[in-house]
Amino acid sequence: xxxxxxxxxxxxxxxxxxxxxxxxxxxxxxxxxxxxxxxxxxxxxxxxxxxxxxxxxxxxxxxxxxxxxxxxxxxxxxxxxxxxxxxxxxxxxxxxxxxxxxxxxxxxxxxxxxxxxxxxxxxxxxxxxxxxxxxxxxxxxxxxxxxxxxxxxxxxxxxxxxxxxxxxxxxxxxxxxxxxxxxxxxxxxxxxxxxxxxxxxxxxxxx
Length: 207
Description:
Blueprint: E1 4-9, E2 14-17, E3 24-27, H1 48-63, E4 71-76, H2 82-93, E5 100-105, H3 106-109, E6 116-122, E7 126-133, E8 136-144, H4 150-158, H5 162-166, E9 171-174, E10 188-190, H6 192-200
Parallel strand pairs: 1-4, 4-5, 6-9, 9-10
Antiparallel strand pairs: 1-2, 2-3, 6-7, 7-8
């Protein structure tokens, strides 16, 4: 049976769970200089073969000879577009570093103990408000990271979906990128360690 390798794409790096533990190792592509408001992995497209080679060697060095038979369980940023999702899938599958890829957003992975909840996160482009029900994204709203109002986002959270309007749900603040200080009073803050602990034990069947 293939081994599942949990992986997180953050604002600045790719975190991959180590083989024999619950810690995450950082994969940083040499020479990649991210642009403002653009996800760093966009730069991979300019040197795709080279980046795929380095990533494959990174996985091979940690997981050994049978590395290519594994499944990458990738947690992607909440504002990942459909085209970006396709690129992520194709990049890793075609790198030869895995057998297959499974993906879910950070918001979908932030709580294992609640069927319904709201998540708030921030990337280099957007603040993202999501309503999750039974692992599915039922509603989502994006705000420009350079122009948002915390009070307005909190008010929007109350009306994001009809389910939310008629029954309160918990709000989780995703602080994996350590950039959510403005939102700490709006809900339960999930620290980087707490988030990684959840992902380290992720079930690929739910992705």
